[in-house]
Design brief:
This protein is of the alpha+beta class and about 220 residues long. The protein is built from six helices and seven strands. It is globular. It comes from Mucilaginibacter pineti.
């Protein structure tokens, strides 16, 4: 009986130890998941919202000159607000929807200049149900508008997307303002890289160059 009791005791200890180990693993996994979610939320919160307020001011000015055009821009702004409030909560959204949001953002930026040709936005390939993390591309485009040298020259910002069923290549090029604060750009890039590492580990290649006043971002994503 003593031997049986000893065996039962050992089995009980092993089972108890295994359950404790399993619970510890589950707790650590849950904490890791929540930590990643918190980091993502913090990174998202760093995306500059000022263009929304600038747009409202520009639309307000436009209302007195061209009410019909102002109304069209208000509809675009409304669409962007809905996107920010509701669709960015998802882990993945339709790539087509994401790029529609990017187009609306570019259209709103164009309000600030009479030279509509200072930015080019081109998409090559076709949509076939691809999914992407929301607002993964916009920070690069925001930076281009924020740091471009001039809104008077043509093609000062060039944005190109090449896509297929499982792969996306994003390129954004802009002339860089000579007096720009490189520390500000560096901080933005750090946050963007962090988000890519969290959302696309081993599934992205990001190359950023700044040569002769030309700032270029090249991002490849496996979708």
């Amino acid at each position: 009986m003593t031997g049986i009791a000893w065996i039962n005791g050992m089995l009980g200890a092993v089972i108890k130890g295994s359950l404790t180990w399993y619970r510890d693993i589950r707790v650590k996994e849950e904490l890791h998941r929540k930590n990643m979610e918190t980091e993502l939320a913090l990174v998202k919160s760093q995306i500059d919202p000022h263009f929304l307020f600038n747009t409202l001011n520009n639309i307000d000015i436009l209302i007195t000159r061209d009410a019909e055009t102002a109304s069209a821009y208000l509809n675009k702004l409304s669409g962007i607000m809905r996107f920010l409030l509701y669709e960015t909560k998802a882990e993945r959204i339709s790539l087509e929807r994401e790029l529609d949001y990017v187009q609306q953002y570019i259209d709103l930026q164009r309000i600030r200049t009479s030279n509509l040709d200072y930015v080019d936005f081109e998409i090559s390939g076709r949509f076939c149900g691809q999914l992407i993390a929301p607002m993964i591309l916009l920070p690069f485009i925001e930076n281009a508008f924020k740091h471009t040298e001039s809104r008077k020259a043509e093609s000062n910002i060039h944005i190109n997307l090449l896509l297929n069923k499982h792969h996306l290549v994003f390129t954004c090029t802009n002339t860089l303002f000579v007096k720009d604060d490189s520390a500000d750009i560096g901080l933005g890039n750090t946050l963007i890289r962090k988000r890519l590492e969290l959302l696309y580990p081993d599934a992205h290649v990001l190359i950023i160059t700044n040569e002769a006043g030309l700032y270029r971002v090249n991002l490849e994503l496996s979708l």
